[in-house]
């Protein structure tokens, strides 16, 4: 179902539900237009389901449809514009209009929605009930209402500190506040803030939540593969297997015959004992002879 309305939405639209509607200056028309060039009943729209036909009832006073002069009749379609004097009308398809409005609203919402950075502040103060404040690329925290993070704390400066994200890293800068900005208990004028740090603005403390550092990312390393090379053993025929024991016995006997015979250890000891006794006897006899002289 289509409808006709003023382009500037000055008045309510007219739904095209009747087989015929009239447009003109007279109050009896379905759509009343107030323009010196308009007649009491200047035009009519014939409705056949969603097929529309516009008829100009005053040929001496042309109607403009989409920039074209109409003195008789013409077909109307959604989004067509009708001009008579200073009045502009437009044919609307409500379904299409609702879809366009929804798309425009979604686009506006998307444009207005802040980019997610992955950084946020989690309040540690009981008065803020562990509230989480997502951070944009540039944030000002303070007592003033125009601050990105506005906190009604008595000892907080109107513009207390600035939080800025540069190349994925978070930095804090004190905006010459009266009671200072503290990072992990140390007062700072400007410093880089890391995930897990604690920020304090006067008496309000916040835990810093942010994306993981590069070192925390999972890395994949290659594992060397050990390859064992197995030498292929030569194939032995059944005949060679039968000859092998006989050949081994012959080789063992030959090796035994070439080895020198060992003298028993006891015989060697007896031989050396006799030699020692002989030498000792010679020494004793020589000593006796020398003493007699």
General description of the model:
- The chain has 293 residues and is an alpha+beta fold.
- Among the domains are: 3-97, Tumour Suppressor Smad4; 120-209, Tumour Suppressor Smad4.
- The protein has three helices and 22 strands.
- It has helices spanning 94-112, 238-258, 265-292, and strands spanning 3-6, 14-15, 20-24, 31-32, 43-48, 51-56, 63-65, 68-70, 73-76, 81-84, 87-92, 120-123, 132-134, 138-142, 149-150, 161-166, 169-174, 181-183, 186-188, 190-193, 198-201, 204-209.
- The chain has a six-stranded antiparallel β-sheet with strand order 2-1-11-10-7-8.
- Strand 10 (81-84) and strand 11 (87-92) form a beta hairpin.
- The protein is elongated and about 185 Å long.
- Residues 213-225 have low confidence and may be disordered.
Q: How are the elements arranged and paired?
A:
Layout lengths: L2 E4 L7 E2 L4 E5 L6 E2 L10 E6 L2 E6 L6 E3 L2 E3 L2 E4 L4 E4 L2 E6 L1 H19 L7 E4 L8 E3 L3 E5 L6 E2 L10 E6 L2 E6 L6 E3 L2 E3 L1 E4 L4 E4 L2 E6 L28 H21 L6 H28 L1
Parallel strand pairs: 3-4, 14-15
Antiparallel strand pairs: 1-2, 1-11, 3-5, 5-6, 6-9, 7-8, 7-10, 10-11, 12-13, 12-22, 14-16, 16-17, 17-20, 18-19, 18-21, 21-22
Radius of gyration: 55 Å
The CATH architecture of the domain at 3-97 can be given as Sandwich
CATH fold type of the domain at 3-97: Tumour Suppressor Smad4
In DSSP terms (H or I, runs of 4 or more residues), the helix count works out at 3
Largest sheet: 6 strands, antiparallel
Read across the widest sheet, the strand sequence of neighbours is 2-1-11-10-7-8
What class would the helix/strand composition place it in?
alpha+beta
Which strand-content bin applies to the residues? 25-35%
Total number of beta strands: 22
Q: What is the N-to-C order of secondary-structure elements (H for helix, E for strand)? A: EEEEEEEEEEEHEEEEEEEEEEEHH
Mean pLDDT: 79
Helical coverage, percent range = 10-25%
Distance between the termini: 165 Å
* CATH class membership of the domain at 3-97: Mainly Beta
Which regions have little confidence, pLDDT < 50, spanning 5+ residues?
213-225
Tell the overall outline.
elongated
């Amino acid at each position: 179902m289509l409808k006709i309305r003023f382009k500037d939405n000055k008045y309510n639209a007219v739904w095209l539900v009747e087989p015929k509607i009239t447009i003109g200056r007279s109050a009896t028309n379905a759509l009343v237009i107030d323009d010196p060039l308009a007649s009491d009943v200047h035009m009519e729209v014939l409705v056949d389901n969603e097929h529309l036909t516009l008829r100009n009832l005053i040929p001496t006073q042309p109607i403009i449809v989409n920039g074209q002069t109409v003195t008789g009749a013409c077909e109307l379609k959604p989004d067509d514009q009708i001009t008579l004097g200073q009045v502009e009308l437009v044919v609307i398809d409500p379904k299409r209009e609702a879809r366009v409005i929804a798309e425009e609203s979604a686009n506006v919402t998307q444009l207005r929605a802040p980019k997610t950075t992955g950084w946020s502040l989690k309040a540690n103060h009981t008065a803020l009930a562990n509230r989480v404040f997502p951070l944009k690329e540039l944030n000002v925290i303070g007592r003033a209402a125009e601050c990105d993070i506005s906190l009604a704390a008595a000892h907080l400066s109107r513009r207390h500190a600035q939080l800025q994200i540069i190349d994925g890293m978070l930095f804090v800068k004190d905006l010459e506040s009266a009671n200072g900005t503290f990072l992990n208990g140390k007062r700072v004028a400007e410093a880089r803030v890391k995930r897990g740090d604690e920020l304090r603005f006067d008496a309000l403390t916040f835990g810093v939540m942010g994306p993981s550092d590069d070192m925390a990312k999972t890395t994949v390393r290659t594992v060397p593969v050990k390859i064992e090379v197995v030498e292929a053993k030569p194939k032995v025929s059944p005949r060679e297997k039968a000859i092998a024991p006989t050949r081994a016995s012959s080789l063992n006997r030959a090796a035994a015959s070439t080895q020198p015979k060992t003298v028993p250890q006891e015989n060697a000891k007896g031989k050396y004992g006799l030699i020692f006794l002989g030498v000792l006897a010679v020494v004793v006899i020589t000593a006796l002879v020398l003493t007699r002289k």
